[in-house]
Design brief:
One of its GO terms (molecular function) is efflux transmembrane transporter activity. The chain is α+β, with helices and mostly antiparallel strands. The chain has 3 helices and 22 strands. It folds into 4 domains: about 65-90 and about 215-240, no CATH class; about 100-210, Helix Hairpins (Orthogonal Bundle); about 245-290 and about 300-325, Efflux pump adaptor protein, beta barrel domain (Elongation Factor Tu (Ef-tu), domain 3, Beta Barrel); about 330-380, Beta Barrel (conserved putative lor/sdh protein from methanococcus maripaludis s2 fold), CATH 2.40.420.20. Helices cover about 35% and strands about 30% of the residues.
Length: about 400
């Protein structure tokens, strides 16, 4: 093989070097073009699921507890009419009081009745006498008038007699007018005495009713008697516990709006595995802690009590877990797009997105779906301004 000349070797080296340089330049240019190409945005999805139920703690208690305390104003207890543990009904007599002080008052009041009866009798007699005197005056005037008419007015003697009788009749008229006033006063005195007697009799009847007082039950249940209540006014003498039970639960201010009367719940006693259904029967509007107080970095949150009526009775005092289903779908706040008066989300289906109009409600910073989607729908949780309706997207 013929050996290349030195000149040829130099030329080949130069050409090879140029080719290498060109290849490097092309490679760098391609890489630069690739780097200038915008990176494809990666989106994330979220699946709409039913919100987890709320859990509360509760304690079983009687639906109604009636407590009867010793009332010293009624007197001394003369009889406890029921036994400890006895079943009682509404209006069953529980206690009987005897008030000796009131009994003495009644005796004193009865003594005053005799005086009042005498006053009425005297007033009646005075009135009768006044009427009798009026009758006598009327008869005498009539006799004078008849005698006047029998006189001969043409004779001097008759005329004089008539003049005498006229004066007498006039005197009778004046006496009758005065007697009318006397009758009126006597009637008023009788009315006043009668009213005093009636009032006194009514007062005595009321007083007598206070001598003996029965205290009756206002509810139905089992009565428990604690004799310590006879000496300690802070202890109920009789406690009536209704046979029906309720569960008292506690909810914080954060979940208060979700606990509503009539909502169905599930109950499970901590000591048992059995679950029973129940219904929220009452929600207290007043918090246990009326105001939140901050001490350092700790804040006391207001708590509210509510009652649940179970479908089956539970043992008094049992600790119970209350499960309240939350029938709602929540949407991540960042997934919601607001345009003018409308709200949208991007629904992810088969590699593409659909701009879907929805109706939502914000409660305590949480976006709750009202209309436009269903459970198991997939949404883009991080949409941006580049995302368009019908666009194909890659998701993580």
């Amino acid at each position: 093989m013929k050996k290349l000349s030195k000149k040829k070797q130099i030329q080949l080296s130069i050409i090879s070097g140029l080719l290498i340089v060109i290849i490097l330049i092309v490679a760098i240019f391609i890489n630069l073009k690739k780097s200038e190409k915008p990176a494809e945005t990666s989106y994330q999805t979220v699946t709409l699921e039913q919100t987890d139920p709320l859990l509360f703690k509760g304690v079983v208690q009687a639906e109604k507890i009636e407590e009867v305390y010793y009332d010293q104003t009624l007197g001394k207890i003369s009889n406890i009419a029921i036994k400890d543990g006895q079943e009682v009904k509404e209006k069953t007599v529980l206690l009987t009081y005897q008030n000796e002080t009131v009994e003495d008052q009644a005796s004193e009041q009865e003594q005053s009745i005799d005086k009042l009866n005498l006053a009425v009798s005297n007033a009646q007699q005075n009135l009768d006498n006044a009427y009798q005197k009026q009758s006598d005056l009327t008869n005498k005037r009539e006799e004078a008038r008849l005698e006047y008419n029998r006189q001969d007015s043409n004779s001097e003697k008759g005329a004089a007699k008539q003049q005498e009788l006229e004066a007498k009749i006039e005197q009778y008229d004046q006496s009758l007018d005065a007697q009318k006033e006397a009758i009126s006063q006597a009637q008023q005195s009788l009315d006043a005495a009668t009213l005093d007697l009636t009032d006194a009799n009514e007062t005595i009847e009321k007083t007598k009713k206070k001598v003996t007082t029965n205290v009756a039950a206002t509810s139905t249940g089992i009565a428990y008697v604690n004799l310590k209540g006879k000496t300690d006014p802070s202890v109920p003498l009789v406690t009536i516990v209704s046979p029906n039970t309720v569960i008292e639960g506690t909810v914080s201010e954060y979940d208060y709006t979700r606990v509503k009367k009539g909502k169905k719940v599930t109950l499970r006693a901590m000591s048992e595995s059995k679950e029973i259904n129940g219904t929220i029967s009452e929600v207290n509007q007043l918090p246990q802690a009326t105001t939140a107080q901050t001490t350092g970095t700790q804040t006391t949150m207001a708590n509210y009590t509510f009652l649940v009526k179970p479908d089956e009775s539970l043992q008094y005092g049992y600790s119970v877990e209350i499960t309240l289903p939350i029938d709602e779908l929540r949407i991540p706040n960042k997934a919601v797009i607001k345009e003018k008066d409308q709200t949208f989300v991007y629904l992810y289906q088969k590699g593409k997105v659909k701009k879907q109009a929805v109706k939502v409600e914000e409660v305590n910073g949480v976006t709750i779906l009202k209309e436009g989607l269903k459970q198991k729908d997939q949404l883009i949780s991080n949409p941006d301004s580049k995302l368009k309706d019908g666009q194909e997207v890659a998701v993580n």
